């Protein structure tokens, strides 16, 4: 049975987008992720060494959010690839990057991209 670690409602100010205004003023973003990870040892041993360190995962997401991209698809993919690279035991990821109040002719709302990827190195 798969087990998941979730980080939800991670908030950032970043400079992603196609419009010049988005690249200079920036916007607010929310990231949600679910990582399939073997946590059986952590459940039994209560030892951080046997699970994902939330702070380390957050640091990877934060670092990738600092690199501007035109498309949310690219941001999400880069985050996922870095997480697979830094945490090779992650088996799969579900990742959403949402832009708050995007410049699309309305006040409020959000535009989001959600991706689901398997780690090629741990695929069963």
UniProtKB/TrEMBL annotation:
Designated name of the protein: 7,8-dihydroneopterin aldolase
Top-level taxon of origin: Bacteria
Originating species: Hoylesella shahii DSM 15611 = JCM 12083
EC number, as in UniProt: 4.1.2.25
GO MF terms held by the record: dihydroneopterin aldolase activity
Gene Ontology cellular-component annotations: cytoplasm
Pathway: Cofactor biosynthesis; tetrahydrofolate biosynthesis; 2-amino-4-hydroxy-6-hydroxymethyl-7,8-dihydropteridine diphosphate from 7,8-dihydroneopterin triphosphate: step 3/4
InterPro entries registered for this protein in UniProt: Dihydroneopterin_aldolase, FolB_dom, GTP-CH-I_C/QueF
CDD domains: DHNA_DHNTPE (cd00534)
Domain named Dihydroneopterin aldolase/epimerase: residues: 5-117
Keywords of the record: Folate biosynthesis, Lyase
Family membership noted in the UniProt record: Belongs to the DHNA family.
């Amino acid at each position: 049975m798969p087990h998941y670690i979730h980080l939800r409602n991670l908030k950032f100010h970043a400079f992603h987008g196609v419009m010049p205004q988005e690249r200079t003023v920036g916007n607010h973003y929310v990231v949600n992720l679910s990582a399939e990870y073997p946590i059986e040892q952590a459940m039994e041993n209560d030892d951080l060494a046997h699970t994902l360190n939330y702070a380390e995962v957050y640091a990877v997401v934060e670092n990738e959010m600092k690199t501007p991209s035109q498309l949310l698809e690219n941001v999400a993919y880069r985050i996922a690839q870095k997480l697979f690279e830094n945490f090779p035991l992650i088996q799969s990821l579900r990742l959403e990057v949402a832009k708050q109040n995007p410049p699309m002719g309305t006040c409020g709302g959000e535009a989001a991209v959600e991706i689901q990827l398997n780690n090629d190195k741990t695929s069963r």
